[in-house]
């Protein structure tokens, strides 16, 4: 592993043809915004498109291609991200994992989203877009207990941090009090927005099961959301596919706007599509 050479950074931002593509992304009246539900939703769309553009440039660089694409391509082939019934790994979940969590093997580990500042100087990107890209790049998956929902506005409390949060969710799914969602939230001041389709955790997994899971990982209740160990687990666990496997093996069903899961992430016997679960059922 080594530091990313400045020559590579310069090469990545040298393509003058990117100007038009970036202009289209920043045009708020463009085709990509026709389904935007709010101003915050527009900002999310803009930032994610820019992050995706940067990621495509990074992945095409000859000195980064193998580092960046090998694991992602293998994961795509294994999990076929789409939407149920094709795959419980949704495109929104997988795309943001590739942009925000999966790091190129350099020192320090660098995600595609962390290249945006280099592009901001070359193409004079608006400060709002750059800060939104940084916020999304910094985002992570998390478990949230729903307190209430009024149309697209959800009030929730994160597990295990106990931190309350209000956010927009435009998937169309209407949550119920006490439900636990597994999703990624982007904090784009002055508001927050769900970046992924919510995974709704069904029985028998309940709040105490999630808290116990975190305790087994050495993460206590009421830990800070910025705690390094907690963030590392949610963004870059030791097993790269840990959260993919949880979703894939815990899948139980779906509807428009939500995917349903059950089971405890680190107990295969509770996940209906794991080999351990099948063996357990056969023995009953």
Element layout with pairings:
Layout: H1 6-13, H2 18-26, H3 39-60, H4 65-79, H5 91-101, H6 116-123, H7 127-138, E1 141-150, E2 153-159, E3 164-168, E4 180-188, E5 191-194, E6 199-201, H8 207-216, H9 228-235, H10 242-250, E7 251-255, E8 258-261, H11 275-283
Parallel strand pairs: 6-8
Antiparallel strand pairs: 1-2, 1-4, 2-3, 4-5, 4-6, 7-8
Structural class: alpha+beta
Strand elements, count: 8
Number of domains: 2
Q: Which of globular, elongated, flat, extended, rod-shaped describes the shape? A: globular
**How helix-rich are the residues, as a percent range?**
40-55%
Rg over CA atoms: 19 Å
Q: What is the number of helical segments per DSSP (H or I, 4+ residues)?
A: 11
Beginning-to-end CA distance, first to last residue: 49 Å
Which H/E pattern describes the elements? Answer: HHHHHHHEEEEEEHHHEEH
CATH superfamily of the largest domain: Nucleic acid-binding proteins
| Percent strand | 15-25%
State the CATH architecture of the largest domain. Answer: Beta Barrel
CATH topology of the largest domain: OB fold (Dihydrolipoamide Acetyltransferase, E2P)
Q: Which segments are poorly predicted (pLDDT under 50) over 5 or more consecutive residues?
A: 277-284
Can you summarize the main beta sheet? 8 strands, mixed
CATH class of the largest domain: Mainly Beta
Please state the average pLDDT score. 85
